[in-house]
Design a protein that fits this description.
Elements (H helix, E strand, L loop, with lengths): L3 E6 L2 H12 L16 E4 L4 E6 L4 H7 L4 E5 H7 L4 E5 L5 E7 L4 H5 L5 E4 L2 H11 L5 E4 L6 H5 L4 E6 L3 H5 L3 E9 L1 E5 L1 H6 L1 H18 L1
Parallel strand pairs: 1-3, 1-4, 7-8, 7-9
Antiparallel strand pairs: 2-3, 4-11, 5-11, 6-9, 6-10
Bound molecules: 1-O-pyrophosphono-5-O-phosphono-alpha-D-ribofuranose.
1-O-pyrophosphono-5-O-phosphono-alpha-D-ribofuranose binds next to strand 9 and helix 7.
Length: about 220
């Protein structure tokens, strides 16, 4: 039996993903050791390998088959636009991708003005403004603390993730438009899905049983 390799996004999501996977017997004790600097972990008994990677790299590993399975946010899936199957919504890390800014920017969006949009997600922002709203905008790519942009005058609005809304609130910004609901999804390499259909399908079915039972 060959190993099935599972790529998890480093950070908040990894811990809760592992908890859910554990419930269906997809386990890895070694990965829980926070002091370890190892990058890849093995469950010999079940022929599983796990690795942690930067969220934005997970779709790349999965498309190329370096990981058979990945767990990553819908935001990253949309932004990276890689070829792979999205098979399951794990319902973790629920949040929304929004256009946000000062309340006064609402008008600029309604009148389709040429505005600047700061974001960590240029592809999502482009798709939303160009293909859905048919509004020409200038997209400015940032790497973090996106909420700063409209405050310091870099852009009129931002496209960013809103979870509790407190970052916006504490900075005098509001949600102006909602783009899409986000959560963690399981993705599968297209070839692996065929070659390892039985094992991967069982994993998905078992996970569905757990997830639906919770609801
Ligand atoms: C994310 C997002 C928002 C914030 C939203 O940032 O980009 O800034 O969380 O959460 P809230 O609605 O609960 O306040 P993150 O912490 O990932 O940091 P970064 O974008 O600055 O890298």
């Amino acid at each position: 039996m060959r190993y099935i390799t599972i790529a998890l996004a480093k950070g908040r999501l990894a811990h809760s993903t592992l908890e859910i996977l554990e419930k269906v017997g997809v386990t890895c004790e070694e990965i829980k050791d926070k002091s370890s600097r190892r990058l890849i972990f093995t469950n010999e008994e079940r022929k599983l390998k796990f690795f942690l990677a930067k969220a934005s790299d997970i779709p790349t590993y999965v498309e190329y088959g370096a990981a058979d399975i990945g767990v990553v946010g819908k935001d990253t899936i949309l932004e990276e636009g890689r070829k792979m199957y999205e098979v399951l919504d794990l319902g973790l890390g629920k949040c929304r991708m929004c256009v946000a800014g000062p309340a006064s920017a609402k008008e600029l969006l309604q009148h389709g003005e040429l505005i600047r949009v700061a974001t960590k997600y240029p592809n999502i922002a482009k798709d939303y403004f160009y293909n859905k709203k048919h509004q020409t905008v200038e997209i400015i790519k940032l790497n973090g603390s996106i909420e700063l942009a409209p405050i310091v005058g870099l852009s009129e609005v931002i496209v960013d993730i809103v979870e509790t809304g407190s970052t916006l609130r504490e900075n005098g910004l509001v949600v102006l438009e909602e783009i899409i609901d986000l959560s963690a999804r399981m993705v599968v390499n297209e070839v692996s899905m065929k070659m390892e259909h039985e094992r991967i399908n069982k994993m998905i079915t078992d996970l569905k049983a757990i997830l639906y039972k919770q609801k």
